[in-house]
C-alpha cells in the first residue's frame, strides 16, 4: 500500500470519526440510554374493578411500545384525589394523567355528558366513537375543554356494552315504580331518572354498595356484570334489570396533562395514539369474554335478571327528548354537540340498521339444534 493511499485512508477515517461525534484519540463513545419519562396517573375506579384493569392495560401497552422510554404508573381512585376531582388534578399537573369517563365532568358543562348518557340517536358505543373520531366530536370536546381552561389532552376509547337499568330490591315493572326511589346514576342520566320520579344521588363507583347496604340508596346502576360482581352488588341485591337507554353508548376517556403531553417527543406521542386504538379493541374483546362469564357466575349465585319493560324504555326516550330540549336552550355548546351527533347518526344508523343481519335469529337457530 502506497504512502499516499495510507494517508488518504487516515483522512477518511478521521473525518468519519469526527462526523460521528467522537474526539480523535479519545476512547470509543458508549451509547447511554435516556432516563425514562415517568407519568403518575390515577383512575376513577377502585383497584379491584375491571375498569382499573383497563387503565393498567393501556399503561402497560404504552410502557411496552415505548421500549421503556415512557413509564406510566396507575393509582386507584382516591390515592391522590377523589374520583370526580380527577380532571382538575390532571389539568393542574398534580397528576400527569388519568382514566375515567367524560360524563363524570357533567357538572362543568352539561354538553360533556352527551358522550356517555342517553340513546345517542340510536348509535351504539362504537358508532359514537366513530362520530368522535371522524364526525367532529373530538374537535367539539377539545373546544369545551379549552373554554373551561382545562389543560388536558383527551383520548376517547373503549366502547362499553349497554349498561343495565340497575340493581333493585324487587323487579321494576312500571314507570311509577321510580317515584321517590333513592337511585344512583351519573351524567345526564340524572336528569332522565329525575324526570321519571327518582331521587338521584351521583356517587362514585366505589361508594355505591356501601350506600345501598346502609339504606342510603334503594337502587343503583353502575356498568356491567364483572364490575358489579367485584364491587359487591350481589351482596346487597339479588335483582338486576337488564337493558336501558340511560347509558347504552358510553366509552372511556384517557387524560393527559396537555402541557406535559405536548412536551413529549413526536415518536412518544405516536406511541400513545397507537396504544389508544389498540387498547380500545382489546378492551372490547376482553369485555365480551369477562362480562359473559361473570353474567353466568352471578346467575349461579342466585341473582335474578329481568328485562326492563318496553314501557319504561319508551318513558326514558320521552324524558330524554325533554331533557335535551331544555339543555340545548340553556347551553349553546350542548346544542352544537347534539346537532353534530344527530347529523352523523342519521347517516350511520341508517347504514347499520339496513346492513346488519339479525344475530338473534342465528343464535336462536343454533340453540334449538343443540
In short:
With 370 residues, the chain is of the alpha/beta class. The protein has 14 helices and 11 strands.
Task: Describe what this molecule looks like in 3D.
The protein has 370 residues and is an alpha/beta fold. It has two domains: 37-160 and 249-291, Bacterial extracellular solute-binding protein, family 7 (D-Maltodextrin-Binding Protein, domain 2); 166-248 and 300-350, D-Maltodextrin-Binding Protein, domain 2. Helices cover 49% and strands 14% of the residues. The protein contains 14 helices and eleven strands. It has a five-stranded mixed beta sheet, with helices on both faces. It has a three-stranded mixed beta sheet with strand order 5-9-11, with no helix packed on it. The relative contact order is 0.15. Mean pLDDT is 91; it is low at 12-32.
Topology:
Layout: H1 3-19, E1 37-43, H2 50-65, E2 70-75, H3 86-92, E3 97-100, H4 125-134, H5 137-147, E4 152-159, E5 166-168, E6 182-184, H6 189-195, E7 199-201, H7 208-213, E8 219-220, H8 225-231, H9 233-236, E9 239-242, E10 251-257, H10 258-262, H11 266-300, E11 304-307, H12 310-330, H13 332-355, H14 359-369
Parallel strand pairs: 1-2, 1-3, 6-7, 6-8, 9-11
Antiparallel strand pairs: 3-10, 4-10, 5-9
